[in-house]
């Protein structure tokens, strides 16, 4: 498995996550004490601290809504059914046999399909119900005094308590699933530092490796656009032609590398490749920076972007020394 460390979580996102977690846990502890489940702070202090935490939670929600809207992060929670069966199979069975994760986490797509549905439900239904029912319960008599009549006090209490049980169940499930990363603590560390080891597909590994291999290759690499202009070369290509920097050639027409009489052959070769054909091996004459002629072995392949040929790329190997040695013999 190949991985790469990627910045997934922004600073405010991590602050919001951990602050929200602390507040929800504290609200649950103080709230259940208010219901008489146990004694921790004492009834009066539990009520007081529960009210303070509720206001802090409301302020955090307001800032979080503003951040989600201004950054576009709200799109992360749009539900989707794509890969949902694969994700469910992964949680039920695949995770126990080290199966690959069916979805990939990125900065723009941090949540798998089940997480999207879960968080969408929390943000649209559970948390709003908790906040509204909690403040209606807190200020029940004040709302009556101004002529607003909502559900009965006991009804609000039951609704608020049910929501609390849902959030507590979510916390336990969330903690468990947080340990199902590459290591049991990797997801937790990512939410602290913001950086996470993300698994790469073989296509991504190739995309990472090929440019480095090309740059370091002893064979000259080139890329021409559809009009025959040079768009990229590596160090070996520059050395073979006698140039010192890419700026000397990039943006100039490839005909500068050939004799005038060889220009039609170059144009014919480009048209051939743009038609989708490959040139596996061809000896061609070249003209270096100082006008000195030479020969090299050339390969040429069409370059595709979104199934459209956008140019020609390949490698060259200097054959001048081999030809000179054969001539001396």
From TrEMBL:
Transmembrane regions: 21-41, 53-74, 120-140, 152-177
DNA-binding is among the record's keywords: no
NCBIfam families associated with the record: sensory_box (TIGR00229)
Domain of life per record: Bacteria
Family according to the record: Belongs to the HupC/HyaC/HydC family.
Keywords carried by this UniProt record: Cell membrane, Electron transport, Heme, Iron, Membrane, Metal-binding, Transmembrane, Transmembrane helix, Transport
GO CC aspect terms: plasma membrane
Signal peptide as annotated in the record: none
Keyword Ligase among record annotations: no
Protein's cellular compartments: Cell membrane
Species assigned in the record: Caldithrix abyssi
Record's bilayer topology term: Multi-pass membrane protein
UniProt-recorded name of the protein: PAS domain S-box protein
GO biological process: respiratory electron transport chain
GO MF, one example: iron ion binding
């Amino acid at each position: 498995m190949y991985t790469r460390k990627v910045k997934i979580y922004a600073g405010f996102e991590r602050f919001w996550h951990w602050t929200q977690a602390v507040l929800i846990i504290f609200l649950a502890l103080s709230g259940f004490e208010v219901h008489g489940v146990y004694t921790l702070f004492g009834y009066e202090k539990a009520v007081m601290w529960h009210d303070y935490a509720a206001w802090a939670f409301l302020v955090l929600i307001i800032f979080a809504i503003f951040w989600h809207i201004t950054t576009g992060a709200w799109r992360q929670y749009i539900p989707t059914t794509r890969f949902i069966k694969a994700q469910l199979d992964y949680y039920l069975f695949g995770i126990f046999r080290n199966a690959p994760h069916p979805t990939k986490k990125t900065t723009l797509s941090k949540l798998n399909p089940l997480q999207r549905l879960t968080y969408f439900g929390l943000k649209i239904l559970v948390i709003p119900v908790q906040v509204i029912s909690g403040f209606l319960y807190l200020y029940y008599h004040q709302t009556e005094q101004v002529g607003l009549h909502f559900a009965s006090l006991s009804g609000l209490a039951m609704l608020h308590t049910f929501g609390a049980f849902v959030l507590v169940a979510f916390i336990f499930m969330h903690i468990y699933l947080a340990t199902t990363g590459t290591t049991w603590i990797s997801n937790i560390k990512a939410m602290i530092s913001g950086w996470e080891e993300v698994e790469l597909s073989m296509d991504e590994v190739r995309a990472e490796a090929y440019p480095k291999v090309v740059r370091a290759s002893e064979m000259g690499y080139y890329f021409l656009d559809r009009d025959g202009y040079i768009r990229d070369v590596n160090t070996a290509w520059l050395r073979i032609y006698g140039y010192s920097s890419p700026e000397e050639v990039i943006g100039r027409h490839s005909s500068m590398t050939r004799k005038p009489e060889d220009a039609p052959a170059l144009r014919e070769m480009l048209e051939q490749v743009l038609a989708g054909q490959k040139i596996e091996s061809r000896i061609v004459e070249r003209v270096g920076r100082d006008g000195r002629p030479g020969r090299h072995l050339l390969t040429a392949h069409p370059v595709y972007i979104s199934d459209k040929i956008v140019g020609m790329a390949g490698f060259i190997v200097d054959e001048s020394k081999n030809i000179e040695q054969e001539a001396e013999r």
